[in-house]
Design goal:
Length: 280
Amino acid sequence: MKKEIFDSFFNPYSKTVDDVASVSAFWRLSDEIITRIIQQDIAPYCTNESLVMDAGGGTGRWAVKLNKFLKGKMVVFDRSADMLAKAKENIKNGDASGTISIVEGDLTNIEYFKNESIDHIISIYSPLSFIYEQTRSAQELLRILKPGGRILIMSHGHFNAIASKINNYKAGSEELKNLLETRMVKWAHHVPELVTHSKESIEKLFSDVGFQIIKTYGVPVFVQPGNEDFDPSNEKKSGISEYLENSDNFTAILELEMKYNSLDTIANRGMNIFMLAEKK
């Protein structure tokens, strides 16, 4: 993706992205699903000496949050200077400067890090979808990961994108044909064209470069956001977010999501596809 297109999206996005969960219960639910997956699949494998990379970690919101239960240290790696400027603030405000560092760089050429220098990698809310050199990025992530290290990496879901384009956008036949053939989706005029993955395609991408696939989740698989949940100003509230404001509803749906979201027959329902793999 060209730098000017990348920066034109992330400059304004860096100013609002951290506030979305305070308005949208849908995003709070999605955050909680992701947190639980990391707690069960990454946290038990971390030690006090571990270095975990948040690949495409943006504003550092997740690193600050995960720093509370992941042992060792973390590094936020991102291409956007605007996002990392916000990350610097968040890390300072989260009193995490001693355990979280920041590195600016491109996931297709992670030259700052030596071979087998990272213990585990997480990548949340689909930085992979912004990368057009997919194989090169997967190779670089494999290169920097230590043997036995785990990666949890997310992409926009391909089949959910099709369903959303039909049901929410009433997309024309040419747009649907293009999405099917290229696996690229354009959500709005201000959003770059993004790569989508199915469970099968993301697993193939990473297994082809040498990762051993463990499992793949859909996040979320049952609850779907409303258009208001993508409001750039974070002022609108969707019907589904109002529904999830009820704590009983929130808890019941969270448990349903966690019970079924890694099943092979269910994962492809995910708005996002979240794959867990290991370097042998």
